[in-house]
């Protein structure tokens, strides 16, 4: 039955042969059944993919095969046309392979669906396989891979998206087996970033991450070792292959982009120094992607920063001025959203952007309280902040979208956060009235930090603390 799909056959017949006289005996035939994405369940049923025909002898198989095949082809073409009308871009099957619990894989797959929607990919189906160990060659087991191929053929899918990072060898092996486009989670995230980047800075950082991802995946043949031989006596050879030319161009481009990003970093540093000279405290809004950071910035500052209910709607940092209730003026930053298993190359490329967090006096960690995976999202953000070295900056956990959560559940979330030693508040970014407690608490935390700084400077020698203000002066200023 798998050969029926893998060999792209319309119908396959097995004929029994009598071993004594060589005469044909029983006839068994099968053909694939066309289907739509709605008709295929998550787990799938391989027996439902085929219809079977049997007869004692060939002469009793009363089927108009030409009419049968034509009707099958028409229905398959009709399903694919419907799929193409629904999808301007790729039509994909999502695949998750896990060695942990299936429930964790299902949560991760739910996030993959959101990523696919953000990338403009139409998801036809999903497959989750739990294994003792991941197959080093094809990730999936052979039987599951055959099932995946059959399902992709029946649905008219043209792309397979894996919920993990694949090695170049795994991508090549799966592509050879399926003849379909194969991408992994980091590549999907990079594609979303490429679609969202608007400014020159953002585009450069995305291109750098894409090139670093692509470089080790530029291969040819059976991993042949190509040499870049020079011409001339003693050095004649095949010359520079196209593969080597591509790799050299990619490396050269990476070097140029890294120099441009370094220039951007220096310019941002100069701008930050200007803000520091004006002694304006800096608050940065950080959090998981699609937590509502841009919406919060818009509500606080009456801005019109692009905000959308989709992942990575914001790539370029935005800074605005905000006056706190006690007549204290601050700079507030909207930053790029984080996500679980963010590609390392992407973090490295966006490090210049994320440096906006370095000089922050306070971090507001915004969390989507209505998301059932909020705990995992909090852990992912805290891990990335730790990797970036921002654990020493005061942090206020703010749960957004509290209007979508039952009051009892919201109280339980706040208690749970308090038990972890974190201060937290609940707000709704679309309701300005709910934001006042957060603004007041942010002002108190900033004032406390200033008092600590004053205490530090007052313990210094006289010549080192000439500009230090007294506690009373700072208290009057913040009030």
Could you explain how this protein is built, in words?
The structure is a single chain. The chain has 479 residues and is α/β, with parallel strands linked by helices. It has four domains: 2-85, no CATH class; 89-191, Rossmann fold; 197-276; 279-478, P-loop containing nucleotide triphosphate hydrolases (Rossmann fold). The chain is 44% helix and 17% strand. It has 15 helices and 13 strands. It has helices spanning 2-6, 65-86, 102-119, 142-155, 168-178, 185-196, 200-214, 242-277, 293-301, 344-349, 351-354, 374-387, 407-419, 436-458, 471-478, and strands at residues 11-17, 24-32, 50-55, 91-98, 122-130, 159-162, 181-184, 282-287, 318-323, 329-334, 362-368, 395-400, 424-426. The strands form three sheets. It has a six-stranded mixed beta sheet with strand order 9-10-8-11-12-13, sandwiched between helices. α3 (102-119) runs parallel beside α6 and α14 (436-458) runs antiparallel to α15 (471-478). It is elongated and about 100 Å long. 30% of the residues are buried.
């Amino acid at each position: 039955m798998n050969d029926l799909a893998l060999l792209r056959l319309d119908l396959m017949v097995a004929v029994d042969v009598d071993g004594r006289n060589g005469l044909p005996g029983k006839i068994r035939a099968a053909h694939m059944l066309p289907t739509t994405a709605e008709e295929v369940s998550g787990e799938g049923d391989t027996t439902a993919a085929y219809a079977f025909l049997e007869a004692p002898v060939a002469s009793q198989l009363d089927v108009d095969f030409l009419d049968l095949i034509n009707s099958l082809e028409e229905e398959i073409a009709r399903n694919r046309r419907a799929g193409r009308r629904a999808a301007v871009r790729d039509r994909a099957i999502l695949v998750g392979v896990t060695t942990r619990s299936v429930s964790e894989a299902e949560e991760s797959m739910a996030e993959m669906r959101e990523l696919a929607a953000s990338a403009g990919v139409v998801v036809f189906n999903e497959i989750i396989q739990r294994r003792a160990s991941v197959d080093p060659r094809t990730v999936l087991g052979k039987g599951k891979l055959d099932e995946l191929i059959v399902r992709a053929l029946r649905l008219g899918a043209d792309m397979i998206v894996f919920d993990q990072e694949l090695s170049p060898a795994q991508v090549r092996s799966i592509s050879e087996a399926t003849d379909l486009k194969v991408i992994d989670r980091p590549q999907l995230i990079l594609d979303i970033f490429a679609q969202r980047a608007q400014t020159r800075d953002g585009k450069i950082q995305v291109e750098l991450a894409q090139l670093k991802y692509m470089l080790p995946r530029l291969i040819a043949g059976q991993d042949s070792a190509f040499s870049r031989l020079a011409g001339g006596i003693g050095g004649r050879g095949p010359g520079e292959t196209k593969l080597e030319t591509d790799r050299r161009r990619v490396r050269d481009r990476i070097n140029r982009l890294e120099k441009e990003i370094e220039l951007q970093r220096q310019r941002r540093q100069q701008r930050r120094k200007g803000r520091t000279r004006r002694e304006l405290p800096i608050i940065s809004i950080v959090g998981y992607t699609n937590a509502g950071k841009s919406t919060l910035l818009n509500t606080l500052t009456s801005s019109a920063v692009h905000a959308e209910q989709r992942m990575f709607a914001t790539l370029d940092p935005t800074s605005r001025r905000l006056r706190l209730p006690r007549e204290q003026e601050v700079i507030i930053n909207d930053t790029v959203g984080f996500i679980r298993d963010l590609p390392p190359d992407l973090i490295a490329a966006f490090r210049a952007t994320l440096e906006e967090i370095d000089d922050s006096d306070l971090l507001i960690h915004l969390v989507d309280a209505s998301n059932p995976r909020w705990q995992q999202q909090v852990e992912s953000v805290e891990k990335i902040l730790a990797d970036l070295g921002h654990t020493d900056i005061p942090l206020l956990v703010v749960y957004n979208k509290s209007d979508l959560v039952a009051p009892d559940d919201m109280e339980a979330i706040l208690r749970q956060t308090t038990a972890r030693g974190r201060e937290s508040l609940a707000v709704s970014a679309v309701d300005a009235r709910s934001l006042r407690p957060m603004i007041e608490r942010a002002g108190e935390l900033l004032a406390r930090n200033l008092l600590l700084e004053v205490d530090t400077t007052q313990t210094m020698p006289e010549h080192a603390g000439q500009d230090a203000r007294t506690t009373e002066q700072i208290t009057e200023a913040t009030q």
